[in-house]
Design a protein that fits this description.
Layout (H helix, E strand, L loop, with lengths): L5 E2 L8 H14 L7 H14 L3 E5 L2 H11 L6 E4 L6 H9 L2 E4 L11 H6 L5 E5 L10 H11 L2 E5 L7 E2 L2 E2 L6 E5 L12 E5 L2 H10 L4 E3 L2 E2 L10 H32 L5 E3 L13 E5 L7 H10 L2 E2 L26 H9 E4 L7 H15 L1
Parallel strand pairs: 1-15, 3-4, 3-5, 5-6, 6-9
Antiparallel strand pairs: 2-10, 7-8, 9-10, 11-12, 13-14, 14-16
Helix pairs in contact: 1-8, 2-8, 3-4, 3-7, 8-11
The site of pyridoxal-5'-phosphate has 14 residues, from α3 and α4.
């Protein structure tokens, strides 16, 4: 007997009945995109929910990061970033026109290590682009100090960090700008979408213009913008999603806690993300497979797959090992020992709000049978 497949994530969607009034409004207004009324409502509601003042909604985080880079003047020179991320982080640097430089990560948080960042600074360095990996906040103070000491811009890839707080405040308040992703697989989704969080209204307006071909008004184009607008359907999904997001976050926390309760103290594996910490969003449930586990990460991965459980090896391979980046000097494995070790041992287990306790117990039992 085969059990139904369990994937690493399952997108959250709002009740269809919550969508219908919004769809009716869109159909009646015939405004489909270009800063429509639903988008304006969503933008205001989102700023309120996140506790940040200046948000530009965009089509996705990849384009949002490109625009943030462009607005910050990062169209040349070097940008120090992490190899332990989704490939879009480095792609955005490249598409904007700058060169990514990889620095090593911290072995506990798996986020950029400020000291390793500082060691990679050259006269060409213009900015730092860290990632709040798996929703765990970066060392924002350490990174801000390095950026200030060397006169660098600090832009955060906050694709994983929806709703994350530190000391009761949004993590998105740090750095010059932060970029959220609302892709289907993220904690909060608009099917596809994203947002750029800026420090001031001027920057928000500049991002809005860049997302709309650079139009300043009907007759004036001041910059080479692209088309990165969010349309009204995505904004409607976003508005409806906001109503349920606290429930989604609470359920994710409960699933994460159920894993942690069984895994904490098992010598063969380490849970990467903290549980029971206020302000974490439980973006994922990554574990690091250690030498005390009877099998290695890939063996465990294949073993789970044979049981119809599709964990994911995030982030493996490192971005620095992918074809467009492997020839960069900073991609040399010798300079990235912590990231390399994490990439070889990481496994993200299924985590989504409606993961059934019985299914989760089966996953836990299978992992412990290999690593317990
Ligand atoms: C998902 C993701 C992105 C890209 O987001 P899109 O909205 O799909 O463009 C960028 N960086 C990280 C770390 C991601 O996980």
């Amino acid at each position: 007997m085969t059990t139904p497949p369990i994937y690493v994530t399952r997108p959250s969607i709002p009740p269809l009945s919550d969508m219908l009034p919004l769809l009716t409004q869109i159909w009646e207004s015939r405004t489909l995109t270009n800063n429509g009324p639903v988008l304006q409502r969503f933008e205001a509601a989102l700023a309120d929910y996140l506790g940040v003042a200046h948000i530009s909604l965009v089509a996705n985080a990849t384009l949002g990061t490109v625009l943030a880079m462009q607005q910050a003047g990062l169209t040349a020179g070097e940008v120090i970033t992490t190899p332990f991320s989704f490939v879009a982080t480095a792609h955005a640097v490249r598409i904007a026109g700058a060169t990514p430089v990889f620095a090593d990560i911290d072995p506990v948080t798996l986020n950029l290590d400020p000291a390793k960042v500082e060691a990679m600074i050259t006269p060409q360095t213009r900015a730092i682009l860290p990632v709040h990996t798996f929703g765990t906040p970066c060392d924002v103070d350490g990174l801000a100090e390095v950026a200030a000491r060397h006169g660098l811009k600090l832009l955060y890839d906050a694709a994983h960090a929806f709703g994350v707080q530190r000391d009761g405040q949004s993590i998105l308040r740090h750095g010059d700008m932060s970029v959220l992703s609302f892709h289907a697989t993220k904690v909060f989704n608009t099917f596809e979408g994203g947002a750029v969080i800026a420090r001031d209204h001027e920057t928000k307006l500049a991002i809005d213009r860049l997302a709309n071909f650079g139009f300043a008004d009907a007759l004036t184009v001041e910059a080479i913008g692209t088309n990165a607008k969010m349309h009204e359907l995505s904004a409607a999904v976003g508005l409806a999603q906001l109503c349920g997001i606290d429930d989604v976050l609470a359920r994710r926390a409960a699933v994460a806690q159920r894993y942690a309760d069984r895994f904490n103290g098992v010598p063969g594996l380490r849970c990467v993300c903290p549980t029971g910490v206020k302000g974490h969003n439980h973006y994922a449930f990554p574990i690091l497979i250690g030498p005390d586990c009877r099998v290695d990460r890939d063996t465990l991965f294949v073993h789970l797959e044979a049981e119809n459980i599709f964990a994911r090896r995030y982030f493996y391979p490192l971005i620095s090992d992918l074809t467009p980046y492997r020839s960069l000097p900073s991609a040399d494995a010798a300079g990235l020992p912590v990231a390399r070790d994490a990439a070889d041992r990481i496994l993200c287990l299924p985590l989504y709000p409606d993961l059934e306790p019985d299914s989760q117990d089966r996953i836990i039992d299978l992992v412990l049978a290999q690593c317990g």
